[in-house]
Amino acid sequence: MSGEKLPEDVLPTILAALEVPDLLRAGCVCSSWRRACDSLRHERELGARIRPQTPCLLYTNASSGDSAAGLYSLAEEKPYTLALPDPPIRSCYLIGSAYGWIVTVDRRSELHLLNPITGDQIDLPSVTTIEQVRPLRDCHGAVRLYEYSWYTATHTERSTPSVFRLHKLRDYVFQKAFLSSDPSTGAYTVVLIHNPYWQLSFARAGDDHWTWLPDGVMYADCVFKDDGLLYAMRVDGGIHAYDLSDPALKPRVVMDGFKVGPGGIYIVQAPCGDLLQIHSDLEYPDEEDEEMPGDEPDLDPPDDDEYFSEPDRATSEYDAEPAWWSVSEDGAEPELDSMPLHEKVVFKVYRVDLTAKKFVEVSSLGDNVLFLGLNQSLCLYAKEYPELKGNHIYFTDDGECMAFGKHEKRDMGVFNLDNLTRRKLFLLGFGPTGHPPCG
C-alpha cells in the first residue's frame, strides 16, 4: 500500500511515532503526507501527540540566512534547516528553552516564545514592565531609549540610572528564562533571572506585566518541580521554594548553600522525582593531557555504583516534548572533535536530600543523562532514548561574559561521568546573536 492510500486515521499515528527530523522529511514524500505532517506540526498540543524526542541542537548560521535556524539532530548526527517567522532569529538573543519552545529577545530587547517546529510565536510582557526598566519616549510617544536602574529590594548599586539604546539593554538585563509547562496549552508561567544581581520576575499566560520577586538575589538556575513549586537555586547552592500562586510571593529556604568558587551551577529534577544539583568547574590541563578519543567506549557503571535505576514514575509530560537542548550562534554545523582544550569543564553531581537537609554526592547517573546550559536543565532516562548514553552530561557554554564576547567560540561538550573524560562539541563559527548556547 502506498503512502497516498494509507487510511486517514493511520498516517497521523505513524507520523507521531517519528523523531522530529523524520517528521520534517516525511512531508516531502507526497502531498497527502505533507498535509498530514503540516497538520500534526500545527496541532495545539504537539508535544502530547508525538513520541518523546531526543534533544536537538538549535543554532544559527550565515548560510541559512537571517530568518532560518539550523537544527542538529543528536539522534542522527545530521543538520537540518528550519525557516522561522520574524523577527529574524539571527538578530535575537536566546535565553532559554523547554517543552519544544525557545525564549528569544529581539533587537528592541522585547521577549517572545517561539516554537521552531510549528512556527508559533507568543509575545511576552514588555521589557518596560520589569521593575528596574523604564521607557524614554520622544515627542511622538515612541520608545527611543530605556532607563535602567541598578537596585534590588535592599541595595542600590548606582544612584543614577543608566540609559541604553533599545538593542543594548538586553546585554545587561537578561540571564536565563524558565517555563512551568508547555505554552501551547495556554496555561504556563515564564520566570526570568535578570539583573541587577540576578533577581527573579515572572509572568503568567495573558499577563501584561512582569511581577517582581524582590526577596531574593543571586539566583543561578530554577526548576519547576512536580509539586508545583518553583525551586530557585542561588550561586552558592542554596535553594529557595516559591509558591507563585500565593499572593505573598515569599521564598521558603529549603536548603542552605555550600558551594564557593567560580564555575556553573545547575538544578534539575531527575526522572525518579529527586532534585539534583550539578557543579561545573574549570580545570587547566597539563600539556600532556588529552581529550578522550572521538568514539567513547560504552561503559555501564556497576549496579552498586548507580544511584538511579528504573524511573519511579512514567515518562512525564515534559519528557514528551521536543527538547531544544542548546541554542548557539552563527556558524557551521556542530561536530564532535577530539582536539584538546585550553581549559576543561569537570562536573560534580549531588542529590538534594530535602528531608535531611543535606547534599549527597552522586558518583554515577546510572542510565540517566543530563543536558546543561542556557536551556532549562534537563535529566532524561537514557533507555527511553536509545541514541543517548547513560551517565553522560551534554553541556553548552552559558557564561555571562559571553554576551560581550560575540566573536569567541562557544565551549560545548559531552562529559562522561564514568571515567571523567570529555569530548568537545562545538560550532566552527557563529554570528551576531550575542548570547551563548542555550536550549
From TrEMBL:
It comes from the Eukaryota. Residues 286-309 have a biased composition (Acidic residues). Residues 286-320 are annotated as: Disordered. Gene3D superfamilies: 1.20.1280.50. Pfam families: Beta-prop_KIB1-4 (PF03478), F-box-like (PF12937). Residues 1-46 form the F-box domain. InterPro entries: F-box-like_dom_sf (IPR036047), F-box_dom (IPR001810), KIB1-4_b-propeller (IPR005174). This is F-box domain-containing protein. It comes from Saccharum hybrid cultivar R570. The lineage of its organism: Eukaryota, Viridiplantae, Streptophyta, Embryophyta, Tracheophyta.
